[in-house]
Amino acid sequence: MDTMRDRFAPVVSRLLDEDPRVAVVLAAIGTDGFAGAARRHPRRVVDVGIREQLLVGAAAGLALTGLRPVVHTFASFLVERPFEQVKLDLGHQDAGAVLVSAAASFDWPAGGYTHMAPGDVALLDTLDDWTVHVPGHPDEAETLLRHAVAAGDDKVYVRLSVQSNGRALPVDGERFRTVREGRSGVVVAVGPMLDAVLAATEGLDVTVLYATTVRPFDGAALRWATETAGTDVVLVEPYLAGTSTAAANDALADVPHRVLGLGVGRRELRRYGQLEEHVAAHGLDARSLRERIGGFFGAAVRP
């Protein structure tokens, strides 16, 4: 199966052909995938070189001229390194763009900590009016990319990962999807965490919600699920643990509830290893999730 990033250049190249507003801004990363598009649309495919602050600044400038820029590099170079430009050039100037990242939290362990960005969504949470898509399958990534580009002049972040669920589900760029219904708790699985969550909760009497658009946070879906499953909630996110706990708490502010946020830990893992080893070290494999989810809900989750 191809990866989400494999889909990125072909999908956006087609969008360049279809929509004269679409432009692509790159910083040396991913340029090969746009070689054909650059020949067809030389004024709308821009490579600024290894200059990530300029990457975002140039995108903002294109947006202010009426174009819809799609901006791509590794998450650590797209959100963290040029954060001031994301805050000011896009946010302060109210300029819309589609930021599309690769490498996620630790997709390329051999790249070391400079190429890891578990805090990217939490960092964007300090800014206003961002939509954040976290697809869990290449087919979902294609759908959400098209949603993002078509979203007027909004500010959108699409977080691509080599981690993927085994099959795609229908996604609409807005709502959480109910995958399993239970009576003793709610587990929200974000993007590529769904397969591990489903394996971890097999045989447990819990509702599983699937989230591929996490900002805005679908508080209505969470509230609806808690009406029958109770107000104990576990969030399983492929980035910094606890990133969405405040959003879940806000959604349930008027009812007694408990929320547990699972995700990537704050401790830096200083060995390269393999992706699967990082998943296990952060307790995001199915076995670890079952222990942590079961321990939080207690005996009530047994059918």
Topology at a glance:
Layout: H1 4-18, E1 22-26, H2 35-40, E2 45-47, H3 52-64, E3 68-74, H4 75-80, H5 83-92, E4 97-102, H6 120-124, E5 130-133, H7 138-150, E6 155-159, E7 177-180, E8 186-190, H8 194-200, E9 207-211, E10 213-215, H9 219-229, E11 232-240, H10 245-251, E12 258-264, H11 275-281, H12 286-297
Parallel strand pairs: 1-2, 1-3, 3-4, 4-6, 5-6, 8-9, 8-11, 11-12
Antiparallel strand pairs: 5-10, 7-9
Helix pairs in contact: 1-7, 3-5, 8-12, 9-10
Pathway: Metabolic intermediate biosynthesis; 1-deoxy-D-xylulose 5-phosphate biosynthesis; 1-deoxy-D-xylulose 5-phosphate from D-glyceraldehyde 3-phosphate and pyruvate: step 1/1
Subunit structure: Homodimer.
EC number: 2.2.1.7
Structure characterization notes:
One of its GO terms (cellular component) is cytosol. Keywords: Isoprene biosynthesis, Magnesium, Metal-binding, Thiamine biosynthesis, Thiamine pyrophosphate, Transferase. It holds the Pfam family Transket_pyr. The protein has 303 residues and is of the alpha/beta class. The chain folds into two domains: 4-159, Rossmann fold (3-Layer(aba) Sandwich), CATH 3.40.50.970; 177-298, Rossmann fold (3-Layer(aba) Sandwich), CATH 3.40.50.920. Helix content is 37%, strand content 21%. Strands 2-1-3-4-6-5-10 form a seven-stranded mixed β-sheet, sandwiched between helices. A five-stranded mixed β-sheet has the order 7-9-8-11-12, sandwiched between helices. The chain starts with a helix and ends in a 6-residue tail after the last helix. The relative contact order is 0.12.
